[in-house]
Design brief:
Layout: H1 3-21, H2 42-45, E1 51-56, H3 58-61, H4 66-75, H5 80-83, H6 90-99, E2 102-105, H7 111-114, H8 124-136, E3 139-146, H9 166-183, E4 190-195, H10 208-213, H11 217-228, E5 233-238, H12 244-259, E6 266-269, E7 272-274, H13 281-292, E8 297-306, H14 311-314, H15 330-349, E9 354-359, H16 391-401
Parallel strand pairs: 1-2, 1-9, 2-3, 3-4, 4-5, 5-6, 6-8, 7-8, 8-9
Helix pairs in contact: 9-11, 15-16
The protein binds ligand 9MR.
């Protein structure tokens, strides 16, 4: 089934409507804002502690320019399956720009989106992101240069479909990194250079990068990025850093890289948590201090809190229940608020070494947790489906104000 094709008429209508609504809308639209919004800004509340970031999706990034929207409509439909339900999303962009001072592209700079075919780059959305950041005084942390996921198969193959040699794959990696990092030299503060290279037990993930190049694919990626922009901050990013075994494997490898003089400046702990199955809080703190002991920055890079019970994920896909389809029960809302507060207490306790906390999205409607691994209504972020602040947001503001 061609899902994009089926939904396209709806999307076209939505876009035309939104273009009308967007009349006069400019980057961030602070000067054209008509409604009074007294909500305090989250990043301002935390300005003495750490940077507060968010991930922006394609719908939000391209909302800034009706012109870019039209171009996209004409030329490019990739990546819309997940995001098109809220396309475009100027309100999400506006809320994102008010509350966050660092932005990360959720998908538009991943290999399959920015470099879909050999020799073919699509910089449209990434260029817009840079313009938005410049016009609104935001920093960018780009995501991600080397990953096993969202990377087309051709990357690892020659023209006949045979697997590339180590040297050929390194050359391809270097070319990709130089093209992107070179284009945005001086405009992007930092990069998630390598993403998710380790297994839960701390061993190397058997990705194609690892299998073809060997474990120094990580160091090479950092070296290439540094060549292309010596001033960019370069980060290693992964999840389950609270797991001592996984953390030990990553820590050991990063320590080796640092000893070898590899240019690495920080480590990102994704922090996709579930309110019903939180990791040991002590391990969250330990993860921050142990990585910081390496002498590099430590960041929370993809924070969100899944509110669904684990049982939802055990159902057969065809018989599952979308349990919070009609709204979030009050007690779950409260639990979400409590867990966010607990986490930020830990983060604030480490604010001398923690440099950034980035949420993986602006508002509940845009979160990946609504569509992966299957469609389900989730409420993982600080803003609801109307982009209004949730009780968890108020709690975090209060926490900052009480510092
Ligand atoms: O949020 C992203 C979602 O829109 C994509 O469909 C998905 C595909 O892999 O990737 C999501 O972002 C991931 C991030 O890039 C790396 N860490 C895990 C994130 C959530 O899956």
């Amino acid at each position: 089934m061609n899902i994009t094709g089926t939904l396209f008429p709806y999307r076209e209508t939505a876009i035309v409507f939104s273009l009308i609504v967007l009349f006069g809308f400019q980057f961030g639209c602070s000067s054209t804002q008509t409604q009074q919004d007294d909500t305090p800004s989250l990043h301002e509340a935390y300005e003495d502690a750490f940077l507060i970031g968010t991930a922006l999706n394609r719908a939000q990034i391209l909302s800034a320019t009706p012109e870019a929207l039209r171009d996209t409509l004409r030329t490019d439909r990739r990546g819309y399956f997940m995001e098109q339900q809220i396309f475009p999303d100027p309100k999400g962009l506006k809320v994102g720009l008010k509350h966050f001072n660092v932005i990360t592209p959720e998908n538009v700079m991943k290999w399959e989106e920015i470099h879909p075919e050999p020799g073919v780059y699509d910089f449209e959305a990434a260029d817009r992101l840079v313009e938005i950041a410049e016009a609104n005084d935001k920093k960018i942390v780009a995501h991600t240069l080397v990953w096993h996921n969202q990377t087309p198969d051709w990357v690892f193959e020659d023209e006949e479909g045979n697997e590339l040699s180590r040297e050929a794959l390194l050359e391809r990696m270097r070319d990709h990194i130089h093209t992107i990092v070179g284009r945005y030299k001086g405009k992007i503060m930092g990069y998630d250079v390598v993403n998710e290279a380790f297994n839960t037990d701390g061993s190397f993930r058997e990705s194609k990068w690892y299998n073809i190049i060997g474990e120094d694919f990580i160091a090479k990626a950092f070296e290439y990025a540094h060549e292309a922009d010596p001033d960019a901050q370069l980060y290693y990013n992964d999840y389950h850093m609270e797991n001592p075994e996984k953390r030990a494997g990553i820590h050991e490898h990063l320590e080796k890289m640092i000893a070898d003089g590899v240019p690495i400046h920080g480590v990102g702990s994704q922090s996709h948590f579930s309110i019903n199955n939180m990791p040991d809080y002590e391990q969250i703190g330990k993860s921050i201090t142990e990585f910081s002991d390496l002498g590099i920055d430590v960041m929370i890079t993809e924070l969100d809190l899944n509110v669904l019970p684990a049982s939802v994920y055990q159902f057969d896909r065809n018989n599952r229940q979308d349990i919070y389809k009609d709204g979030l029960p009050e007690e779950v809302q409260q639990k979400l608020t409590e867990v966010y507060s607990d986490l930020f207490e830990i983060y604030l306790d480490h604010s001398d070494i923690l440099t950034r906390v980035t949420f993986w999205g602006v508002s509940d409607d845009g979160s990946w947790l609504n569509y992966l691994p299957f469609e389900q209504t989730n409420y993982p972020l600080l803003f609801d489906r109307n982009k209004d602040p949730k009780p968890a947001f108020d709690a975090l503001i209060e926490l900052a104000n009480n510092q």
